[in-house]
Specification:
alpha+beta; 2 domains; 12 helices; 5 strands
């Protein structure tokens, strides 16, 4: 039996039939819902539920997994786990946006970091950043940056990015591949689809690399920038995922330990 099958069976057997308006019955040999009842609630066949629990290969769309989660009255954590086991993207997670309180907490976290740091949402909009990041990325996160402050818009539509980012063609190409990896099928839905369409329309480079279908994991490593006043700066990039908010990621740029003098001391904030 697969982990997915074990999880579904365990939660099916925990459901009180009375909580769903079903009669308890006199011939129930096991607790919880029968497979027939779960199949009816999900709009699938009994065979499908049986094979799923047995770990046999079955076709399961994201919508079917969502109906399964709803029928079993799963919590948010349980629902997320079910979708990960099924290797599917939760359709409801696409529109989930971090609450204002979450952004406030992330902002406080970034302010406490003695290095340039920023947080990106699902569309790679910067939703929070510290003063050090605003100083470093003044054409993106600073006072001269766009109001929307989207990383891809900055990289491909802001002319200064090409001279600011070391080896712009390679970094930009990799950024497109990393974005595609994170989008998955969600890239077909708004607002991601609208952003992708805009970038393809406004940037021939983005359009060419997007059509290439490259996929890369978002990696750390050394990042170089040509700052208008400080000259060339080198950092080691680290990206962190926030617990409970998989669509929010924090990027921290740690000072190159081999640099002469401390850059951090010269950055406001």
């Amino acid at each position: 039996m697969s982990e997915l099958g074990k999880f579904v069976r365990a939660h099916r057997e925990r459901i009180d039939p009375a909580s769903l308006g079903l009669p308890p019955g006199l011939r129930r040999r096991t607790p919880g819902l029968r497979r027939e009842e779960l199949a009816l609630l999900c709009g699938v066949s009994v065979t499908w539920v049986t094979w799923l629990e047995q770990g046999r290969p079955v076709s399961a769309s994201a919508k079917t997994i969502a109906r399964l989660a709803e029928a079993m009255r799963l919590t948010a954590a349980e629902r997320g786990y079910l979708f990960r086991l099924a290797n599917k993207v939760d359709p409801e997670a696409k529109t989930a946006a971090p609450a204002v309180s979450v952004i406030d907490e992330v902002s406080q976290l970034l302010d406490a970091i003695a290095a340039p740091a920023y947080a990106l949402d699902r569309q790679w909009n910067a939703v929070a950043w510290n003063a050090r990041a605003a100083w470093l990325f003044e054409d993106w996160l600073g006072e001269t940056g766009e109001a929307q402050r989207n990383l891809l818009r900055f990289m491909f539509l802001q002319p200064s990015a090409r001279s600011f980012v070391d080896d712009w063609p390679d970094r930009a190409r990799r950024l497109v591949a990393e974005f595609r990896a994170e989008c998955g099928k969600a890239g077909e839905d708004a607002p991601l689809a609208d952003l992708i369409a805009l970038l393809q329309r406004e940037s021939a480079d983005f359009a060419r690399w997007w059509r290439a279908q490259e996929v890369l994991a978002r990696e750390g490593g050394m990042r170089g920038f040509l700052h208008p006043r400080q000259g060339r700066l080198v950092f080691r990039q680290v990206t962190l995922q926030l617990q409970g908010w998989p669509d929010l990621k924090v990027t921290v740029l740690l000072e190159d330990e081999h640099r002469d003098g401390s850059l951090v001391e010269n950055i406001p904030g």
